[in-house]
Amino acid sequence: MIIMSNQPCVYILASGRHATLYIGVTGHLFERIHQHRTGVFDGFTRRYGVQRLVWFEHQADFPTAIALEKKLKRWRREWKVALIEKDNPFWEDRAMVLGLPPLDQA
Fold first, then answer.
1. How far apart are CA 37 and CA 26, in angstroms?
2. Which among 24, 92, 96, 99 is most buried, taking Cβ atoms within 10 Å?
3. What is the pLDDT of residue 102?
């Protein structure tokens, strides 16, 4: 999969299967996931160990991506789980398709 820089993308991270979720939007998915994993910024994902990329979807432009992010954040948890499990039933880390190493399974 070729990921272009500055390509709008909505993503969902999880701390584990059926665990804490985080929804975000970025134009640089590889870099953003790397930031979440290394804890560069203080905040929700660092505090709760939310690092596993379980779902992402590229969008045509940033207004569309931001609108989808806001929509997903308003969804009920079971709808988010269903969205993830539609293509990722075991909540596997999808960051490896971006070229990132797998998370430690400790």
1. 15
2. 24
3. 85
Q: Is the pTM of this model over 0.85?
A: yes
- The neighbour count for residue 88, using CB atoms within 10 Å, is 16
- Interval 31-49: pLDDT, tens: 999 999 998 988 999 999 9
Domain extent at residue 19: 9-98
Length of the chain: 106
For 57, the token pair is 């979807």
Q: Sign (positive/negative) of CA torsion 25, 1, 16, 57? A: positive
Q: What is the mean pLDDT of the chain?
A: 92
**Residue 103 forms part of a structural domain:** no
Tokens of 17: 């299967």
